[in-house]
Design brief:
Layout lengths: L2 H29 L2 E2 L13 H21 L1 H15 L4 E10 L5 E9 L15 H4 L2 H8 L8 H6 L3 E3 L6 H4 L15 E3 L12 H13 L3 H17 L15 H7 L5 H23 L1
Parallel strand pairs: 4-5
Antiparallel strand pairs: 1-3, 2-3
Helix pairs in contact: 10-11
């Protein structure tokens, strides 16, 4: 067998292996993804050729490439998280995903490297974030190393490399129909809002940047955001937290604090989020 034929066989084997991994991870993701049925549907946005056919291929290449190239870094992070924070090493959280043809969001499990302890009070309730966020946890957040776990979401198809950042389910319930249009694009590891202020800008600005992104999705635009993300995360070390806060402020808390919703409306929408999460868990376990 010639050298060219050997190389071709190796490439085919690698591609077949990657395809098998992507398929298995996709099937697993489907079993833990649930429809947000309690939310009111919105109009579905028309997508361009790049977003419909090319972006997913780009995501798979980037996701698989990141895991392969940074596998030693993944191992190091896993060891340090295990030693400093304990198990589990990966932290999972329900997040609203892309809107389907029915106009309703999906709820999927997002993976991140753990950055907090699970310390609880005498009643078994988790302590406040600022008490559970250790120096090590703060460091991996500031360097965005905790976000590397989302490469698995990119591979299984629940996230994209670039797109609106997936917010909390309880944030979803406070968004208007216009703001929820951000969910007509697959959520991303990074996005336009992340390279234009991240959590140092107001909620309205973040959402407006997301809406601007979905109107101008392109390959060159995504590549530009990737380079800007690397520059900000690795060179400038821009963190995730807001000033004087251990973690970013929820949309509902922001709206309540700025008196854009009253206490009754705040409680009602928070309860809706809890119902959607509970229904997801029941649906997945069936």
């Amino acid at each position: 067998m010639s050298e060219k034929m050997k190389a071709a066989v190796i490439v085919c084997v690698i591609m077949a292996g990657c395809a098998a991994v992507v398929h298995m991870m996709r099937k697993k993701a489907e079993r833990t993804t649930y429809k947000a049925d309690k939310i009111e549907p919105i109009a579905v946005r028309q997508k361009g050729v790049y977003e419909k056919y090319i972006k997913r291929i780009f995501d798979i290449v980037c996701g698989m490439g990141a895991v392969a190239c940074f596998s030693p870094l993944y191992l190091i992070i896993m060891i340090f998280v295990k030693i400093r924070l304990g198990s589990p090493v990966l932290f999972t959280q329900d997040r609203p995903g892309i809107i389907g043809e029915d106009g309703k969001e999906t709820i999927f499990k997002m993976y991140k490297f753990r950055s907090m302890t699970d310390e609880r009070d005498e009643n078994g309730e988790l302590l406040p974030d600022e008490m559970r966020l250790t120096g090590f946890g703060k460091w991996i957040r500031e360097t965005s190393l905790d976000e590397l776990g989302e490469a698995f979401n990119i591979i299984n198809g629940t996230m994209s490399v670039i797109g609106p950042r997936p917010q909390l389910v309880r944030d979803l319930t406070f968004m208007t129909k216009e703001q929820r249009m951000r969910h007509t694009a697959k959520p991303g590891l990074s996005g336009l809002a992340q390279v234009n202020g991240r959590n140092s800008i107001k909620w309205e600005e973040k959402i407006n940047l997301d809406l601007c992104y979905i109107q101008n999705i392109s390959f060159l635009g995504d590549v530009k955001i990737i380079f800007e993300t690397v520059k900000k995360a690795l060179i400038r070390h821009e963190g995730i937290t807001e000033e004087n806060m251990a973690t970013s402020e929820d949309l509902g808390d922001y709206l309540l604090r700025t008196e854009q919703v009253d206490q009754d409306e705040y409680i009602r929408r928070q309860a809706l989020a809890e119902i959607m999460i509970a229904e997801k868990r029941r649906g997945v376990s069936q």
